[in-house]
């Protein structure tokens, strides 16, 4: 199976092309946030360098969020359009889980973090299973640091934080003390090769056209609206004319 | 003659649209998914919400457009896409999807200016004859564009503040009309009379620029003042007076531009081009220009749609305009200003 894997959830961009479990080509960039300009040329380049044509691809694997709204939309728009236009499979993977693929120790809990500003984070809790794949212990969510620490309380293992950890390290160390481990800098970056390898085993979506990013957060306008209209059906807001 | 088929994309604001256009002048399909209902909750377009809706709709629209046009990817000549001006997050969905399709099927990619699209909606009715002039009026734009020849767009005047459509939405709110207010205010105006003498800003200035913020403020002040003294104003008269001021300025400036730049065709385009008051007035004013044909873009093509992008895309394709995979959204994209006026 020829796989194209894409992650532009945050500042780093990572794209890879795999043939089953063989990596054919990969690019990871952290110096620019020009995903709009870079993503398609990099996909084109990697598929070329893999001696493949677009129509040779069998599946697109995308890190679908959470993350920067523009970032996850870029990856998901490219991924779902490529899958839809070529009539191939699309597999969605959590962008937080994607970071956990960089960790192999089974004896620590893995706590991937994206900065959601103002001491808010996109985060979840994982443990590496016997097959080497992350198992979700606490589901991905948008939450502030204090509430997250409450959710972590029942767990007394060591916790490895990974990702955009700078803004949260101190607060987490106060709560977890010596049990806190900070991942190395390379592990903070998504690795599209590992994303593709993992996504190879995950079922593809059944309806590519319906795919949207995992924002895990309503827009402010929608959240305010929902407070005032808690029972409204939100499904028919877009009409074909 | 070979048949050019362009698959075109438009996502600059709150419409996701994909079309298939044959030879630049025939619509084989024009799928438009509008988000108006969604943004009505908030009284105007919320950019992040718009971006989220675009990504929900985009591939479904592509499928529908090809199906309705009864063509496959192998039949296509090129892919065209709006890359500006507009909301950056919204534009990016169309641009990314268009690039992905172009790459996947080895098709050339044509970058299209949204305003060129609005103007080329006229080409779907009748071929544009040059030199031509276009008055483009919408929620985001109010511009007079001179086209000395094909693929030359030169701004000779534009709004210095609010776009005309924006002014309609703002005074609509004061009249208790939800966005988009253009059509209801137009209808209301036809039931009223021009009894308030609202200012016509810059109408006599020696340029082709517009300004609508003074008119908007005068309108709002009039209503607020009446509220304070508990006086009930006739809403239809308010709407009629507002519309009269807008239409006067738009048509006066256009008429003066036509005196200075004689053209074969005047095109009225953009969302506000659907305004009946403006269409009637320009039609009447054009009687003094027997050598200039007036082309009113049909109501169905005034709003944002991908058919117009395909029409402009075909013209650009013929002129060799291409983009590569680095194409980015350009939210502030503009035509050049005219360099030397022809006198
Ligand atoms: Zn428009």
Offer a concise description of the structure.
The complex is a heterodimer of chains A (241) and B (343). With 241 residues, chain A is an alpha/beta fold.
Describe the fold and architecture:
Chain A: This is tRNA (Adenosine(37)-N6)-threonylcarbamoyltransferase complex dimerization subunit type 1 TsaB. Chain A: Residues 31-156 form the Gcp-like domain. Chain A: It holds the Pfam family TsaD. Chain A: One of its GO terms (cellular component) is cytosol. Chain A: Keywords: Transferase. The complex is a heterodimer of chains A (241) and B (343). With 241 residues, chain A is an alpha/beta fold. Chain A folds into 2 domains: 2-95 and 190-228, ATPase, nucleotide binding domain (Nucleotidyltransferase, domain 5); 103-188, Nucleotidyltransferase, domain 5. Helices cover 31% and strands 29% of the residues of chain A. Chain A is built from 7 helices and 11 strands. Chain A has helices at residues 35-49, 69-86, 95-100, 145-152, 166-176, 192-199, 220-228; strands spanning 2-7, 13-19, 22-29, 59-63, 89-93, 108-115, 120-128, 134-144, 158-163, 180-182, 239-240. In chain A, the strands form 2 sheets. Chain A has a 5-stranded mixed β-sheet with strand order 3-2-1-4-5, with helices on both faces. In chain A, strands 8-7-6-9-10 form a 5-stranded mixed β-sheet. In chain A, helix 1 crosses helix 2. The longest helix of chain A has 18 residues, at 69-86. With 343 residues, chain B is α/β, with parallel strands linked by helices. Chain B has 2 domains: 5-122 and 301-319, ATPase, nucleotide binding domain (Nucleotidyltransferase, domain 5, 2-Layer Sandwich), CATH 3.30.420.40; 128-296, ATPase, nucleotide binding domain (Nucleotidyltransferase, domain 5). Chain B is 40% helix and 18% strand. Chain B contains 10 helices and 11 strands. Chain B has helices at residues 36-40, 47-69, 88-104, 114-120, 164-174, 182-189, 213-228, 235-260, 276-285, 306-318, and strands spanning 5-10, 15-22, 26-34, 78-84, 109-113, 132-137, 142-147, 154-158, 265-269, 293-296, 336-337. Chain B has a 6-stranded mixed β-sheet with strand order 10-9-6-7-8-11. In chain B, strand 2 (15-22) and strand 3 form a beta hairpin. The longest helix of chain B is centred in the C-terminal third of the chain and has 26 residues, at 235-260. Chain A binds chain B through residues 34, 36-41, 43-44, 54-55, 69-70, 73-74, 76-78, 80-82, 84-86, 208-210, 212-213, 215, 219, 221-222, 225, 236-241, and chain B through 16, 31-38, 41-42, 46, 48-49, 51-53, 55-60, 62-64, 73, 89, 92-93, 95-97, 99-101, 103-106, 324-329. Zinc ion (ZN) is lined by residues 114, 118, 138, 304 of chain B.
């Amino acid at each position: 199976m020829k796989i194209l894997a894409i992650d532009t959830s945050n500042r780093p961009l990572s794209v890879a092309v795999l043939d089953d479990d063989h990596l054919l080509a990969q690019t990871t960039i952290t110096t620019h946030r020009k995903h709009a300009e870079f993503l398609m040329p990099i996909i084109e380049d990697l598929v070329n360098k893999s001696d493949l044509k677009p129509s040779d691809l069998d599946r697109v694997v995308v890190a679908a969020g959470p993350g920067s709204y523009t970032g996850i939309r870029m990856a998901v728009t490219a991924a779902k359009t490529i899958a839809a236009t070529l009539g191939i499979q699309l597999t969605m993977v959590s962008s937080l889980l994607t970071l956990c693929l960089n960790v192999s120790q089974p004896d620590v809990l893995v706590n991937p973090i994206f900065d959601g500003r103002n001491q808010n984070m996109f985060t979840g809790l994982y443990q590496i299973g016997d097959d080497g794949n992350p198992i979700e212990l606490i589901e991905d969510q948008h939450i502030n640091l204090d509430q997250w620490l409450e959710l972590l309380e029942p767990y007394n293992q060591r916790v490895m934080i990974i990702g955009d950890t700078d803004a949260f390290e101190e607060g987490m160390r106060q709560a977890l003390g010596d049990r806190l481990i900070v991942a190395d800098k390379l592990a903070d970056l998504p690795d599209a090769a590992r994303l593709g390898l993992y996504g190879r085993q995950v079922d593809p979506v059944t309806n590519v056209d319906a795919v949207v990013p995992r924002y895990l957060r309503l827009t402010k306008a929608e959240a305010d609206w929902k407070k005032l209209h808690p029972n409204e059906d939100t499904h028919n807001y877009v009409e074909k004319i | 003659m070979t048949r050019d088929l362009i698959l075109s994309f438009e996502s600059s604001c709150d419409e996701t649209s994909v079309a298939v256009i044959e030879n630049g002048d025939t619509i084989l399909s024009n799928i438009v998914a509008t988000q108006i209902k969604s943004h009505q909750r908030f009284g105007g377009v919320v950019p992040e919400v718009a971006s989220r809706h675009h990504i929900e709709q985009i591939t479904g629209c592509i499928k529908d457009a090809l199906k309705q046009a009864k063509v496959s990817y192998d039949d296509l000549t090129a892919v065209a896409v709006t890359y500006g001006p507009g909301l950056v997050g919204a534009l990016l969905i169309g641009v990314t999807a268009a690039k992905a399709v172009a790459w996947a099927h080895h098709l050339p990619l044509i970058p299209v200016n949204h305003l060129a699209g609005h103007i080329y909606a006229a080409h779907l009715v009748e071929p544009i004859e040059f030199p031509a002039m276009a008055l483009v009026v919408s929620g985001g734009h109010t511009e007079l564009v001179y086209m000395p020849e094909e693929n030359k767009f030169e701004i000779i005047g534009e709004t210095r503040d609010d776009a005309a459509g924006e002014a309609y939405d703002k005074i609509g709110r004061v009249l208790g009309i939800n966005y988009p207010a253009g059509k209801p205010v137009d209808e209301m105006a036809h039931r009223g009379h021009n009894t308030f003498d609202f200012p016509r800003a810059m109408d006599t200035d020696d340029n082709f620029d517009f300004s609508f913020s003074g008119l908007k403020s005068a309108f709002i002040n009039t209503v607020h003042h009446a509220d304070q003294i508990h006086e009930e104003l006739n809403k239809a008269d308010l709407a009629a007076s507002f519309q009269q001021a807008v239409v006067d300025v738009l048509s006066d400036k256009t008429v003066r531009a036509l005196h200075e730049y004689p053209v074969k065709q005047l095109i009225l385009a953009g969302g506000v081009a659907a305004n009946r008051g403006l269409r009637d007035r320009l039609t009447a004013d054009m009687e003094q220009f027997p050598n200039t044909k007036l082309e009113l873009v049909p109501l169905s093509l005034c709003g944002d749609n991908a058919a117009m992008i395909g029409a402009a895309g075909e013209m650009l394709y013929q002129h060799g305009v291409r983009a590569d995979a680095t194409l980015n959204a350009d939210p502030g994209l503009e035509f050049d200003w005219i360099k030397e006026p022809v006198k």
